[in-house]
Specification:
Blueprint: H1 12-31, H2 40-56, E1 80-82, E2 92-93, H3 96-110, E3 118-124, E4 127-134, E5 137-143, E6 149-151, H4 154-157, E7 175-183, H5 186-198, H6 207-215, H7 220-224, E8 229-239, H8 246-256, E9 265-267, H9 270-283, E10 291-298, H10 301-307, E11 317-321, E12 326-338, E13 344-356, E14 359-365, H11 369-375, E15 378-379, E16 382-388, E17 392-399, E18 408-409, E19 423-427, E20 432-436, H12 446-453, H13 466-474, H14 489-493, H15 500-512, H16 518-524, H17 532-541, H18 545-550, H19 553-557, H20 564-575, H21 577-588, E21 611-615, H22 623-632, E22 636-638, E23 647-650, H23 658-666, E24 670-672, H24 673-679
Parallel strand pairs: 2-11, 21-22, 21-23, 23-24
Antiparallel strand pairs: 1-6, 3-9, 3-10, 4-5, 4-7, 7-8, 10-11, 12-13, 12-16, 13-14, 15-18, 16-17, 19-20
Amino acid sequence: MAKTAAAPTTSPTNRAAELRKQIDHHNHLYYVEARTEISDRDFDKLLQELADIEAKHPELVTPESPTQRVGGAPIPGFKQITHKVPMLSIENSYDEADLRKFDADVRKSLGVKTVVEYVTELKIDGVSMAVTYENGQLAFAATRGKGDVGDDVTHNVKTISAIPLKLAADKPPKTFEARGEVYMLRSELARINAEQAKNKEDPYKNTRNLTAGTLKLKDPKECAKRKLLIFSYGAGVIDGLNIKKQSDLLAKLKEFGFPVNPHEKLCTSIEEVIAYCKEWDAKRKDLPYDTDGIVIKVNDWDQREKIGYTAKVPKWAKAYKFDPEKGTTKLGAVVFHIGKFGELTPVATFDPPVELAGTTVTHASMHNASWVAEKDVRIGDTVVVEKKGEIIPQVVDVIKADRKGTEKVITWPDFCHECGAPVVKKETASSYNFVCSNPEACAGGMWKRLEGYARKERLDIDGLGREVAIQLVESGLVKSIPDLYSLTKEQLLKLEGFKEKKAQKLLDGVAASKTRGLARLLAGLAIFRVGEEMAERLAEAFPDIDLIIAATPDQLASTEGWGPERVKYLRAFLDNDNGKTLIAALKTLGIKMTQDKRAVPAGGLPLAGMTIVVTGTLDTYDRLGIESTIKQYGGKTSGSVSKKTSFLLLGTLPKPSSKHEDAKKIGVKIIEEAEFRKMIGEG
């Protein structure tokens, strides 16, 4: 009997290559084409077989192997990556009139008879990402950051199965930077929050926050446990490809293996764009992920160059923002929270809870007493609730037509439920509220005062944020601000989450806060209507706390921006026993209570005598930084535009700005950041 020849065996090298090819094929089907050919179980078997081969033959492991997505060792910290092509923000619009004006501006730049196409894309609510490939291989990935510099998150991006480790191209470009939005499905948020609840930990508020937090994890293995996704929509640096249209770029991204949102549309008129925006404003709830608007881009790249850019945004693109999601429910009860000034904030409890923007909302603020009275809100009312910025829930209206006659008027307590002090009515020019009459000693607002005291622009205590402030107060370690300065490492190490490094960081931050100076101290003491700007003006006029204490109300009111009402609140703080005790205790502890004279820059004071209003987000400065810079060069800032305004410094506007509109109406000069920096000699 003849022998049967043995079937040839496939070598580990060939089998590994074949498995990688199959896995990449199925990943492409799933993430790019949104379809499958095999079950999840069969896919996992392919992946496990490849992992087993690579474990036995480590020399066969390649950087682009699907098994490498599980991540390596944790990284020590985040490096910074400079974007060679800045990741600019896109100016927002909120109604049809904004979109028609955008279209008119585009046609004005190109000529009214020019044919213009717009590509419309869903604005995914996630984290902007730039992924760079060198010769087809994933080289590095960075977040948008400030637009010019972002965090290197390559270690975590490699764990995202939807992002190709190698471009699907026989002859890939030398350099290709794909840009997109990393996001998470609402179902994944629910899964992770179920785990949080099981472990008795706080739930994550929304998919965007969870996505951002996941990308900032230092251990890629932890990132790999969460199912991050991406939709790619753009490109940065391109070397080796000739692309002329946005529609062509989207096709190329899909060809390379990137998921592109299937709902993008090429429109030939602004009316078609508006119809698309309306369509998706109604349909967005049906999507499994969060989206907060539509991005509209001129399709032709040559036309884009003619239209141009401002210092912060492309003039050829616009983001249409959906209206905040609203819902209705019953107001079941009202509880009162104590603020840092002792103010009682009414917080509504809903019965039943209302679903908004993918989350269940059970409570929401109702502002203050005058708002409740103006709206005539009653327990049992049907109320309208919306999420401000898709994040912060608030009651916005009452449906009085639904009243049955059984609703109850909200009554305000006579005594503070935290400290027992009487509750009194406090009125301002435009509203009123009820407050605890002993705010400096009330435990209810203590953690908020502590958090405010530690803010960067005040005493700048590193390591003392909201969670730590709550811990310190609830543990009884801090009953007043001076208690901060007697904390010991032994006490801190007994608190949950505190280890040697965290405890030392807080103690170092507390010690450093002693030298911040009078202006920042005054701003940190939670004196009603005394913020950073007013505190600094007062400290410059009276550069020692003893001079302020000795000054008459008329002398204090002579300080620019200080009127009788603001002085009244300051004197009430300085003259009552709690205020006197607090100042004396801090002085004994060695807290600096004097103000140094402002140094004059070498180039002089080019802004001397000028009043400057700032609106929007700036590239070079944060809010505290621009105010400090203006003062350093002799100018002063104001919160509103008037005929006395020297100029308006305009940054990127996330929404229409009343300051910008006022400046245009009055005829106040408007300059952008580049011109401002040249003016002070920093450009």
